[in-house]
């Protein structure tokens, strides 16, 4: 085995925690009647974000590179050559305001000014929270001296770079950084895994994919003939409809014990 390929979101950085806290802070900033109203607003915003995201012009492209509805609530879309990304730069402010406005209306609040304010508050709150897991730097420090490391992440170029470079020193571990928005397709498409291998002159047998998502990281690796390590921090049961990982780990610190690559069974 030659190279370890890492996912970014919820593998190296704790994106879920960042998003949850930013949503809570933004709903609190709405200064609603009580905490239950803030909780309801959060639920409605998440629901409307997903429904309105699917209605966006260029949604099929965004889905292809695996941009999420919540990411579209704070991405700038100011990087990337695809015309769909340039179009989203224009549409994003309207999408954000519509999401927050729709959430407020579910609570009987018709206030466009407040919706606009919350649409700007959420990106600011999200950018305050570049959380990283405790084991991330320990694992990368240990591994990078013996193995070339690559990063393979889905999303828009601007946002994924912001997440990566927003954590001091994180990008320095990777010899190659591949972002789906720069390639035109995302995990689990075998094409983006093939792109990674071509970039570094690798064969599938030389790679190990490490990621938390069974339906992007692990499925994509499986389709590409690449061994995989499913990072299952929460001890979830493997769903029957999911791709089977080569390994299952609960911490990034367990990767070194897998090397050299000797899958069981």
Q: Distance between termini?
A: 18 Å
CATH H-level homologous superfamily name of the largest domain: HAD superfamily/HAD-like
Mean pLDDT: 95
| CATH architecture heading of the largest domain | 3-Layer(aba) Sandwich
User: What is the number of domains?
Assistant: 2
Which geometry do the CA atoms define?
globular
**Radius of gyration based on Cα positions:** 19 Å
| Structural class computed from helices and strand pairing | alpha/beta
Unreliable segments of 5+ consecutive residues: none
Topology as H/E string? Answer: EHHHHHHEHEHHEHEE
Q: CATH fold name of the largest domain, please?
A: Rossmann fold
Please characterize this protein's 3D structure.
This protein is α/β, with parallel strands linked by helices. It contains ten helices and six strands; from the N terminus they run βααααααβαβααβαββ. The protein has helices at residues 15-29, 35-55, 59-64, 83-106, 112-127, 136-144, 157-165, 180-183, 190-200, 214-223; strands at 3-6, 149-153, 176-179, 207-211, 227-231, 247-249. Strands 3-2-1-4-5-6 form a six-stranded parallel beta sheet, sandwiched between helices. Helix 1 runs antiparallel to helix 5 (112-127) and helix 4 (83-106) crosses helix 5.
């Amino acid at each position: 085995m030659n190279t370890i390929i890492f996912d970014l979101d919820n593998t190296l950085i704790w994106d879920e925690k960042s998003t949850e806290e930013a949503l809570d802070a933004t709903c609190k900033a709405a200064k609603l009647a009580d905490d239950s109203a803030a909780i309801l607003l959060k639920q409605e915003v998440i629901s409307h974000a997903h429904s309105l995201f699917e209605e966006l012009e260029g949604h099929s492209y965004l889905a292809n590179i695996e941009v999420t509805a919540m990411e579209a609530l704070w991405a700038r879309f100011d990087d990337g050559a695809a015309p769909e990304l340039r179009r989203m730069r224009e549409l994003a402010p309207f999408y954000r305001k519509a999401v927050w406005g729709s959430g407020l209306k579910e609570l009987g609040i018709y206030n466009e000014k407040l919706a606009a304010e919350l649409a700007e508050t959420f990106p600011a709150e999200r950018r305050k929270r570049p959380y990283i897991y405790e084991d991330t730097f320990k694992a990368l420090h240990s591994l990078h001296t013996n193995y070339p490391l690559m990063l393979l992440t889905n999303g828009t170029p601007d946002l994924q770079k912001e997440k990566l470079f927003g954590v001091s020193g994180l990008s320095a571990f990777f010899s190659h950084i591949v972002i789906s928005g720069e390639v035109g397709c995302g995990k689990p498409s075998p094409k983006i895994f093939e792109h990674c291998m071509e970039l570094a002159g690798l064969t599938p047998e030389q790679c190990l994919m490490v990621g938390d998502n069974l339906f992007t990281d692990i499925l994509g690796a499986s389709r590409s003939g690449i061994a995989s390590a499913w990072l299952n921090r929460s001890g979830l049961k493997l769903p029957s409809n999911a791709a089977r990982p080569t390994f299952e780990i609960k911490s990034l610190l367990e990767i070194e014990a897998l090397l050299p690559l000797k899958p069981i069974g």
